[in-house]
Amino acid sequence: MVKTDYDIAIVGGGLAGLATAIQLAKKAYSVVLFEKEEYPFQKVCGEYVSLESWAFLESLGLPLHKMSLPLIDTLQLTAPNGKELFTKLPLGGFGISRYLLDKSLADIAAKSGVTILQKTKVDDAKKQDDLFVISFPGNAIKTKVCCAAYGKRNNLDVKWKRPFLRQTSSRLNNYIGIKYHVKTDWKDNVIGLHNFENGYCGISKIEGNEYCLCYMTKAENLKACDNSIEALQENILAQNPHLKKIFSQSEVMKDFPVTISQINFGAKEKVQDGILMLGDAAGMITPLCGNGMSIALHTAKLAAALIDAFLQGKFSQSEMEEAYKKQWNKAFASRLKAGRFIQSFFGGKRLSNFFVGTFKAFPFLTKPVIKLTHGKPF
Ligand SMILES: Cc1cc2nc3c(=O)[nH]c(=O)nc-3n(C[C@H](O)[C@H](O)[C@H](O)COP(=O)(O)OP(=O)(O)OC[C@H]3O[C@@H](n4cnc5c(N)ncnc54)[C@H](O)[C@@H]3O)c2cc1C
């Protein structure tokens, strides 16, 4: 047992973990953050960030206004049969790759004094008396507070037997995600959301001269294509004429695609044996709604303020936990529910044809639906 003690341990160095670490390190707490990969690295994500996060990211020290990032103010929604509609996004967003975003935040975290242990996968974290013991290969440390920000699904979910893993509704689990960076012909201010049988594919600009092309579908769709991504794209995605055109005229960048599996949208607990769950580890909004990153960052803001109050002795551990659950539910529960509900409309081919057709006929319906799943700047 190494006797290196920290105030706070954070498991997972994505957006939720890094943003929490930066805020607490800036308040002079000692913070250790574990990340199993090495920065910079690619991650499956549509890479469209809602503008609700702009001010918060800048407050962490990320100079977004100097980074020449594309601003996106229009949504193109298409149905599997090719029907399309355009609508202005109520708030809009910007494009940035996770490669750049996560690396930039990791640099800020390191400069702020966070100890970042990269290529270090946490095996377990548990409460022992009033402290947390975090174990990783060949070692363990003790901390006063522990946050889990390890994303969608993880070895620790299995170890802790989290109930969402028993979720049987096929509507909510067993999705795969596939991402490319491409050079293509696409408008800089438009995010395209193209539906196909049992899935959807987003395209929008990121930094440089590249575009993120990312889709999510049921694992059965891939299985039905003999587990071939090319066959999946040719046989199923390309039935939507917009996707057929995009895939045929895009130049794929080196090292792509990147893929993930076992994506699950079931409800999750917000606190696990005293550990605050952040970002996707606390609940994942369907990517169709395009703002999981903002929710992850917002959970980091809520958690950091409560941890600060706890470490100053203003709250007990249980008061901190209760306040986190309450604030989380107030801020996000209805957005996640709305996301799951909307996702169900875009499951089958006929249903998504019908809904895109309806939105096209009644365009005034689109903005309230988008607003249901989006928050305000925080
Ligand atoms: C297909 C798809 C498209 C999406 N598109 C968008 C979009 O366009 N816009 C948007 O806002 N959101 C989008 N999202 C959602 C968004 O990607 C997530 O909500 C967001 O990344 C959550 O951030 P996080 O910090 O919780 O988790 P992550 O960013 O996943 O970070 C978790 C980190 O923990 C690390 N880790 C995991 N286990 C361990 C361990 N045991 N020890 C140490 N480290 C560990 C991982 O390597 C990872 O870096 C999309 C999601 C999917 C699946």
Automatic annotation (TrEMBL):
One Pfam family in the UniProt entry: DAO
GO molecular function, one term: squalene monooxygenase activity
Domain Squalene epoxidase: 212-310
Coiled-coil spans in chain: none
InterPro entries: FAD-dep_OxRdtase, FAD/NAD-bd_sf, Geranylgeranyl_reductase, Squalene_epoxidase
Annotated localization: Membrane
Membrane spanning residue stretches: none
Its membrane topology: Multi-pass membrane protein
Name of protein: NAD(P)/FAD-dependent oxidoreductase
